[in-house]
Specification:
There is one protein chain. By secondary structure, the protein is an alpha/beta fold. The protein is built from 10 helices and 8 strands. The chain is elongated and about 60 Å long.
């Protein structure tokens, strides 16, 4: 069976559901500094709709500055006390195992800043050994983080799977196809991809590889 060289796979959204982690981090900062957190569904829908953070803070009656919130967010969002709220999406282990038949290498490429906690979380969920490589790119004031990490690789065929503009832009710059996961951090209308699926277990990888 023909195999492509790489599947470049995003973590937050395609593999992990981060709704509870994001909301609890946001809520704790609001309660600490003064304000009234909006409810979890409203918060998540606003994030998925790309509503700017300052608008969310305004609706939360936040009593501190935007800069103060952002710094606390960066400091806290990847701490283990918040990572524990993440949930593994359906059939992830089976899906990654099945993809071994279709790709020479499955590489996780994620916008995380704390690599040690990232590895801890992958081991916690039992999926570390299903990946051939783990690349973490800082998301702090860095444009094109994923592309910069991947542009030096040599390959003939590859595909990107992700749920944000970072993933679709990376695929475009690399000149490869992209699969958008629509049940992640962005609504489908904000993504420009070659293929769309709500969850990665729904991807017919054999069919997609046959035409790329």
């Amino acid at each position: 069976m023909r195999k492509i060289d790489y599947i470049f796979l995003d973590l937050d959204g395609p593999i992990l559901d981060g709704k509870l982690r994001h909301y609890n981090c946001y809520r704790d900062i609001i309660l600490k500094d003064g304000g009234v957190p909006i409810d979890i569904d409203q918060y998540w829908n606003m994030k998925r709709a790309k509503i700017k953070r300052d608008i969310i803070l305004h609706q939360s009656q936040y009593q501190n500055t935007y800069e103060n919130f952002l710094q606390q967010w960066i400091d806290n969002i990847e701490k283990k006390e918040y990572l524990k709220f993440d949930e593994l999406k359906p059939y992830i282990s089976d899906t990654l195992s099945d993809w071994r038949d279709f790709a020479k290498s499955i590489v996780l490429v994620t916008m995380r800043n704390n690599h040690d906690n990232l590895l801890w979380q992958l081991h916690h969920f039992g999926i570390y050994n299903l990946l051939d490589n783990v690349i973490s790119c800082s998301n702090i004031k860095q444009e094109g983080g994923k592309y910069n990490e991947l542009k030096g690789l040599s390959f003939n065929t590859a595909i990107v799977i992700g749920d944000t503009e970072e993933d679709t832009i990376t695929a475009e710059k690399l000149g490869i196809k992209v699969i958008a996961i629509t049940n992640g951090l962005r609504e489908k209308k904000h993504l420009c991809a070659d293929y769309y699926f709500e969850e990665i277990y729904q991807i017919d990888m054999k069919q997609i590889i046959s035409v790329i």
